[in-house]
Each structure stands twice: as C-alpha cells, then as structure tokens.
Amino acid sequence: MVYGDYESAMILPVNKKFGINYLIQPFLTPQLGIFSKKNIQPEEIKEFLNMLAFSFGWARLNFNKYNTGIPGDWEVSSQKVYELDLISPAHKIYKRYAENIKVVLKMAENEGFSIMKQLAPNDFINLWKKMYSSNHSKKEAEENKLRRLFSRGIQHKACEIYGVYSSFNNLIASSAFFNFNQKTTLLISVFDSKEANELSLIFLIHQFIKNNAGQNLTLKFELPQNTQLKSLPNKYFLKDPINFEDIFRQFGAQEFKYTVAEKKKTSMKVKLLKSFLT
C-alpha cells in the first residue's frame, strides 16, 4: 500500500483462511509497518490503518519503531528490541560488558570452543530441525523459507552465519546475521539440545562483536519469535532459565520498543476462528 509518489509504503502480508482475508506477521519478519523517506505523522498512520480496517477482516502486525501514534480502534502492545553501536574499538566495547558476560567468556575459553564465520546454510538448518519435534506443524514451510532467505541473503552478501563448535568439533550453536543499511540484525539462533545454554550464545555474540568492532555499524538483537526458544538453561549460574533480554542487556545493548497492533473490531466469525489464523 503506497502513499503519494512512493513517499511512504506499507508491506501487507496477506493471508486467507476460512474465507477470511487477514494480515499476520510472517515468520522471521520481526518488524514491518510503514516505511517513509520522511518523518511519519500520526495522521498518515491513521489513514493507512483505516484502509486496512476496511480491506481486511482481521490484522495483527508488528510496526517498526518509527511508527508511533496508532489510533485507538487498534489494540496496542509493545515488543522490545536491543541495539549495540559497534563504532568503538573492540576493547572499549568489551569494557562495557557486564561482569557476568566476562566470566562466561572465560568459561567458554576453558571449554575450548571455536568459531566458524561462514557456516553452510545446510548445517544451520540441520541444527534448527533438531530443535523441533516431528509434530511441529509449520516445520516444512518454515524450513523452505529459511532456505530461500539464506540463499538470497548470501547471494547479495547480506547474510552471515556463525557457528560454535565444541572441543570435540561438534556444532553446538549457530546464529544468522543479516546486514542492511549499516545495521546487522541477529535474526535467529539455534542450539544443539544437549548443549543449549547461555555459554555458546554469549561466546558467539562476542566473536561477532570482535570481528566487526570499529565500523559504522549497529548490531540489533531481535527477541525470538514464537517458533524459537524463549530462554536458555542457565547452566553455570542460577537454576532458573536465562532470558535472551538479559544476555543482550549485559553486552551493553540499548533497549527500544516497537508497536504490535491488532484490529479491535472484527466479526463473530473472526473471533471464533482467530486462534486458527495465527
């Protein structure tokens, strides 16, 4: 949906089930919303959303952090995102790490972990598949999307996949980073089920920061979506699982929020079937 001569535009992830046309946030697409060359005014946002309300029976979308002032006929919540500026040298960024992160990195060194900067997509996907049981209903469709995403990203030099190997040369964790417009997003991480803890992820993020420090670059941490892990076993410290947010904050990343908006006024049919649309 376009405003004017492409002054602003909004991508519409259209779906249809049970005769209902609706919009839902796609897999591995944390933020969409309205994109513009200029500051977007609340009146423009209202105009876009009025069109959505007219055209679709239901919608729930994640807007980007520049879209503020969602009108009152939409139910609004927020999602967190974390950003870390990498323009400083690596040793200065390291000084800002929380002490807990520094302790974990020493443990990773003692464990004999090693890093691979250009892991093959198949290795990532094989590890991703192991994270899910065979009854994961969207597994095949999501795998196909991952393969297309990696293929296109590598083709355009916008994707880099890091892997962590144990001292026995087993792949135990991997993360995919996507670059665009001087920002790199840690979009998705996967783990060996036997080795799923905070140690490998912290080691991986640190290695990425070391390799990219001193550039005019921002590292963005997106929180896992529903189909990914929400937390990691806290093997080395507390008994409770460690939240991804805690890890990102302890690297010195700054917290931002973006809006999740859901259409309030829907038909009885949508209300009855909404759980099947997500």
Task: Describe it.
The protein is of the alpha+beta class and 278 residues long. It contains 8 helices and 15 strands. The strands form 3 sheets. Strands 3-4-6-15-7-12-11-10-9-8 form a 10-stranded mixed sheet, sandwiched between helices. The chain has a 3-stranded antiparallel sheet with strand order 1-2-5, with no helix packed on it. Strand 10 (171-180) and strand 11 (183-191) form a beta hairpin. Helix 3 crosses helix 6 (198-212) and helix 4 packs antiparallel against helix 5. The longest helix has 17 residues, at 139-155. The model has no long low-confidence stretch (mean pLDDT 86).
What is the rounded Rg?
A: 20 Å
Class computed from helices, strands and strand pairing: alpha+beta
Report the CATH architecture of the largest domain: 3-Layer(aba) Sandwich
**Poorly predicted parts:** none
Q: Classify the fold: give the CATH topology of the largest domain.
A: Aminopeptidase
Q: Please state roughly what percent of the residues sit in beta strands, choosing from under 5%, 5-15%, 15-25%, 25-35%, 35-45% or over 45%.
A: 25-35%
Features of this protein?
2 domains, single chain, 278 residues, alpha+beta, Aminopeptidase, three-stranded antiparallel sheet, ten-stranded mixed sheet
Question: How does the SSE layout of this entry go?
Answer:
Layout: E1 2-3, E2 8-10, E3 14-17, E4 20-24, E5 34-36, H1 42-55, E6 58-62, E7 74-85, H2 90-95, H3 99-111, E8 114-116, H4 121-130, H5 139-155, E9 159-165, E10 171-180, E11 183-191, H6 198-212, E12 218-222, E13 231-232, E14 242-243, H7 244-250, E15 254-263, H8 268-277
Parallel strand pairs: 4-6, 11-12
Antiparallel strand pairs: 1-2, 2-5, 3-4, 6-15, 7-12, 7-15, 8-9, 9-10, 10-11, 13-14
Helix pairs in contact: 3-6, 4-5
